[in-house]
Amino acid sequence: MTLSTTLETSLIAWILAATATFLMGISKAGLKGLSIFNVTLLALAFGARKSTGLIIPLLIVGDIFAVIYYNRHTQWKYILKFLPWMLGGILLGAFIGKDLPESEFKLGMVIVIFISLGVLVWWDKRKSTHIPTHWLFAGPIGIMAGICTMIGNLAGAFTNIFFLAMRLPKNEFVGTAAWLFFITNLFKLPFHIFVWKTITWETLLIDIKLLPAIFLGLLTGVMVVKMITEKNYKRFILIVTAIGAIAILFK
After folding, report:
1. What residue ranges are annotated as transmembrane (predicted)?
2. Rounded to whole angstroms, how far apart are CA atoms 46 and 214?
């Protein structure tokens, strides 16, 4: 059964995709922490491998909005410190993920999701105020972020740790992360088009149909970014994402 056939006959797939894309827009507008949730829903809707390419154009749309809206807050010195390591991780991830069978690819995504969840929980429970800023800290975190973003679009947990280590205020955090992900998502495009072949005319048509959801999410995110706190939804995201990750294995 082709992807288009599956989507035409599955209302649930469209609901999952629209919800994921809406949350993606909210995340890109400044409410960080939803990337794991987005990836899980899209993988459930479209399959693990296809969803990795399907999500990239939508992420870039959100990135364009974010870099325009938060551009004045961007701290380029931190991007230049972190970006080379992350690009190296993307290259490594492209090599690792190219020939993985679907079952192993699903397992890899689940592992990445749970690693990301673990990192988020660890950071939340960490009491120490001392965070290393040496390149030996940025290097491994950047490489891991690159691998995770290439294989499963799940670099958020690792980039969050790095930017938190730099003690960036909220707006600088969002603006700097926006440019970092815009650059890295553009860097990933050729691999998804020519190497993995997960971006096709068919997936782009699906992306076009999902654009209203991301635009609505972007507008919603801008309106609530100053009102909502992560504490209100963090536990919900962690629990639902863990359930979704397990469900990927049985899809």
Report:
1. 6-24, 54-71, 78-97, 103-123, 135-165, 177-196, 208-227, 233-250
2. 17
Report the candidate in 42, 2, 47, 51 with the shortest Cα–Cα distance to residue 22.
Answer: 42
Taken as a whole, the chain contains a residue count of 251
Contact 27, 39 (CB under 8 A): no
Q: Rounded distance, CA 70 to CA 53, Å?
A: 26
Report the percentage of the chain scoring pLDDT > 90: 38
More confident residue, 134 or 168: 168
Q: What pLDDT digit, counting tens, does each position of 6-50 carry?
A: 445 488 899 999 999 999 999 898 777 677 788 888 988 888 788
Q: Long-range pairs for 70-75 at CB < 8 Å and ≥24 separation?
A: 70/30, 70/171, 70/174, 70/175, 70/178, 71/175, 71/178, 71/179, 72/175, 73/171, 73/172, 73/174, 73/175, 73/176, 74/172, 74/175, 74/176, 74/178, 74/179, 75/166, 75/168, 75/172, 75/175, 75/176
Q: Is the pLDDT of residue 196 over 50?
A: yes
Q: What is the pLDDT of residue 218?
A: 95
How far is it, in rounded angstroms, from Cα 18 to Cα 171? 27
Taking residue 164's Cβ as centre, other Cβ atoms within 10 Å add up to: 13
The three-class DSSP label of residue 29 is coil
> Which are the contacts of 124, defined by CB distance < 8 A and separation ≥ 6?
234
CA distance 21 to 215: 9
Query: Strand, helix or coil at 208?
Result: helix
Q: Cβ of 60: how many Cβ atoms within 10 Å? A: 18
